[in-house]
Amino acid sequence: IETGEVMSTTKKLAVLIDADNISADVIEYLLLEINKFGIASVKRIYGDWTDTKLNKWKDTLLPYAITPIQQFAYTNGKNATDMAMVIDAMDLLYSNTFDGFCLVSSDSDFTRIRENGIEVIGFGQNKTPEAFVKACDKFVRTELLMPVKETSIQTTESTTSPPTNITATPQAQNIATPVATPSAAAVTKTNQATAQ
């Protein structure tokens, strides 16, 4: 283990999640990725918890020790969740407790945090505006964190002959193995192997 790797895992990180813009399905893989950058000392998730759209998120809060922050949508056209995240991020920044921030959103710009010399790691979907991506020191697309879906080999059984056993080739077995954090290169290689 190199010294730099040990240092990075001891960083204290504040993790702020916008529940309105990120799927609950990604949480396990998201937190595994965040662990590569440091320790998630604070984990907060923002949204209007009276909205049934966030029901799936509610099931993840306790198992992953995430603190929900209620933010009612008082007005149309303004994203109250984003504003609450920015205010909390600035409060946490000036507490001088954290070495970095992990901001999980697909539509916010947190340039002020980075201006203060704190590392900002962004997480968001492919639709994330370029302004937010560039406001981060590092940016991870959440679609790449999800495991590769298993592919099943289906056979058609004949009524006159018994079903045959099909053994998957090593290439097919590799494709079906879920990968927690596939890199773009790994996905490309898998696609090329499948095409051959």
C-alpha end-to-end distance: 37 Å
Number of helices: 8
Quick one: how many beta strands? 6
Mean pLDDT: 75
Instruction: Give a short account of the largest sheet.
Output: 6 strands, parallel
The radius of gyration computed from the alpha-carbon positions, rounded to a whole number of angstroms, is: 21 Å
Strand content: 15-25%
Shape estimate: globular
Order of H and E elements: HEHEHEHEHEHEHH
Low-confidence runs = 1-9, 151-195
Instruction: Give the % helix.
Output: 25-40%
Structural class: alpha/beta
Strand order of the largest sheet: 3-2-1-4-5-6
Overview of this structure, please?
This protein has 196 residues and is of the alpha/beta class. The chain has eight helices and six strands, in the order αβαβαβαβαβαβαα. A six-stranded parallel beta sheet has the order 3-2-1-4-5-6, with helices on both faces. α6 links the parallel β5 (119-124) and β6. The radius of gyration is 21 Å and the shape is globular. Residues 1-9 and 151-195 have low confidence and may be disordered.
